[in-house]
Each structure stands twice: as C-alpha cells, then as structure tokens.
Amino acid sequence: MASWCVRAVRQSYSLVASPALLRASPRLLCTATQQKNGHGSEEEAEKTEISEAEKVLVEQKSQVEEQLKDMTEKYKRALADTENLRTRSQRMIEDAKLYGIQGFCKDLLEVADILEKATESVPKEEVTSQNPHLKDLYDGLVMTKGQIQKVFTKHGLVKLNPEGLKFDPYEHEALFHTPVEGKEPGTVALVTKVGYKLHGRTLRPALVGVAK
Question: Does the keyword Mitochondrion apply (predicted)?
Fold first, then answer.
C-alpha cells in the first residue's frame, strides 16, 4: 500500500513538471492577457460610441431649439399681423357706418342752402298778416329748414358758421382777405357759405372772408 502511494506521488510530480505543461503555461497567460486587453478595448470603443451619440443628440437639440425659437417668432408676428388686420377692419367698418351717408349728405346740403337763401330773400317787413299767402309760405320754409337741420344733427351733421372766430384752414376756405374795422387780423369777417362737419370730419368747409 505504501509503495502504491509513492508511485502516485511520483506520477503527479512528473505530470506537473512535464515540459509540455511548462511550455503551455506562457501561452495560457498570454491568452488571458489578450482577453483582458480585448475587453478593455471594447469598453473604450463603447465609451467612444456613447460620446459620439451624445454629441449628435446635443447638435439635434440645438437644431430643434433654433427651429422652436424661429417658429415662436413667426407665430408672434402672425398674431400681431392678425390683430392689426382685425383693428383696421374694425375701424373701416366703423368708418363705413359713420361716413357711409357722406355722399347723400353732400347732396342734401344743396337743398339746405336753397332753403337758407329762400328764407333770407323774403323781406321781413312783408311777412305780415296782411299778406297771408307770403306769410304761410315763409313760415313753411322756416319750418322745413328747422326740420332738416334737426335731421342733420341726428345723423351727426353739424353746421359751421364761423363768423367772428379764428380762421381754421381745416374747417374754412378763405375767398379773400380784407381789412375790417373792429376785427382782429386772422378772424373770419364774413361767411358767404356755411360749412358742415360729419361726425367731427369736415364735410364741406365754410367759404369765408378773412380780416387782415
């Protein structure tokens, strides 16, 4: 039994000390080293790939932010343009409501002028009860003139009779300049034809003579 144990120990020692095994050991160590180095290279490659992906994502983020900024600016400009268009359209509608009767009013002004001249041309001393027909005609003209002025006022049409006032080129049209005693220079001395304003806008300037 003891001899058998000795032989087994010798065989084990021979196996461990065999040249083939000794020659194979460096190879095994080299293979292990290569495997370790290969694993490190793979990790570095993965890190490089991650860095490149992050760089691409950052660039894409910057592009998206620029596009978002550009679209936001365009949206704001579009909103401002729409609001301006709405305001202009609303103003045009309001002006159309206010001044849509402008042409009709101009035509009626001629009628008002005729009534004015007709009443002024009648001698007041002849408008008596002794001349009933003339009196009735005159009273009818005066009533008609008063009624048409009420209609004008109702629709925003106001008469301009600037005698004695300061000359205003936006409301008056000077036909002549003349020295007038008791009148300050630049004031309206004579009104030859009254003017009218429609909702604050001069529809027809008053024809006047200005003192100098």
Answer: yes
Q: Which of 159, 152, 173, 156 is nearest to 108 (CA)?
A: 152
Dihedral over alpha carbons 52, 57, 59, 61 (to 10 degrees) = -170
- What pLDDT does 171 receive? 93
Q: What is the rounded CA–CA span in Å between residue 192 and residue 177?
A: 13
Distances (CA, A) of 183 to 4, 162, 164, 165, 188: 157, 13, 8, 10, 8
pLDDT band at 205 (very low <50, low <70, confident <90, very high): very high
Assess contact for 145 and 113: CB atoms under 8 A: no
In DSSP terms, which residues pair with 211 in a beta bridge? 178
Q: Would you say the pTM of this structure is higher than 0.85? A: no
Distances 2 to 10, 11, 13, 16 between C-alpha atoms, Å: 13, 15, 17, 22
Contact partners, residue 122, CB within 8 Å, separation at least 6: 134, 137, 138, 141
* DSSP single-letter state for residue 125: G
Residues 6+ apart with CB under 8 A from 115: 141, 144, 145, 148
Give the whole-angstrom CA distance, residue 131 versus residue 137: 10
